[in-house]
């Protein structure tokens, strides 16, 4: 039988490891009733945590709001804009009568409103996307510049959408 090259036994190592761990972590590991250590997840919470997160009660910074609108506008363009664009192109290529019917339907105020919303979605997605690309290149990463670029992207999208609205009506 070979001699143990280490002067301590396994029991001594586990005791030393436990005391070292308790010194390092402190109160994060507490003994439980069974005598062993209790994981941090199993410990009772020291403070009451919310059951749900009310997203409407959170006051977002304006750049976060613009970023969320960028995602919403992208989803709107994908789910509504692309199908309507394909429908318009199909009717334009089908026959002159189908195109005339399509042009007549664009006279409706509801269709004009949908077109205006899609124009805003396109313009906001464009300007906010340019802002995100600039930030990906580490341009305007400080807080002041990020806030200013968010306001510029938002206002530009609204102003150009207003120009489209004047042109539609």
Question: Could you please describe the fold and organization of this structure?
Answer:
There is one protein chain. The protein has a domain at 63-168: Fumarate reductase/succinate dehydrogenase, transmembrane subunit (3 helical TM bundles of succinate and fumarate reductases, Up-down Bundle). Strand 1 (30-31) and strand 2 (37-38) form a beta hairpin. With 169 residues, it is an all-alpha fold. Helix content is 67%, strand content 2%. The chain has helices at residues 10-25, 62-94, 96-105, 109-136, 143-168, and strands spanning 30-31, 37-38. The relative contact order is 0.09. The chain starts with 9 loop residues before the first helix and ends with a helix.
Tally of contiguous helical segments = 5
Q: Identify low-pLDDT runs.
A: none
- The secondary-structure class comes to mainly alpha
Give the neighbour order of strands across the main sheet: 1-2
CATH homologous superfamily name of the domain at 63-168? Fumarate reductase/succinate dehydrogenase, transmembrane subunit
Per CATH, what is the topology of the domain at 63-168? 3 helical TM bundles of succinate and fumarate reductases
CATH first level of the domain at 63-168: which class?
A: Mainly Alpha
Extended strand count: 2
The residue-averaged pLDDT reads 83
Strand content: under 5%
In CATH, the architecture of the domain at 63-168 is Up-down Bundle
Shape: elongated
Helix content range: 55-70%
Provide the gyration radius in Å.
Answer: 31 Å
Distance between the termini: 97 Å
Oligomeric state of this protein: single chain
Order of helices and strands: HEEHHHH
The main sheet comes to: 2 strands, antiparallel
């Amino acid at each position: 039988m070979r001699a143990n090259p280490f002067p301590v036994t396994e029991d001594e190592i586990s005791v030393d490891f436990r005391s070292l761990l308790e010194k390092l972590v402190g109160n994060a590991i507490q003994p439980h009733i069974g005598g062993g250590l209790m994981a941090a997840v199993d410990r009772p919470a020291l403070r009451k945590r919310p059951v749900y997160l009310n997203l409407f009660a959170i006051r977002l910074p304006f750049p976060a709001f613009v970023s969320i609108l960028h995602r919403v506008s992208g989803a709107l363009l994908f789910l509504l804009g692309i199908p309507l664009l394909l429908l318009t192109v199909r009717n334009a290529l089908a026959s002159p009568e189908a195109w005339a019917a399509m042009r007549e339907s664009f006279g409706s105020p509801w269709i004009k409103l949908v077109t205006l919303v899609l124009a805003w979605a396109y313009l906001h997605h464009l300007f906010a996307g340019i802002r995100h690309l600039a930030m990906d290149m580490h341009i305007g990463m400080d807080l002041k510049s990020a806030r200013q670029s968010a306001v510029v992207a938002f206002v530009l999208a609204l102003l150009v959408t207003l120009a489209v609205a004047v042109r539609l009506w």
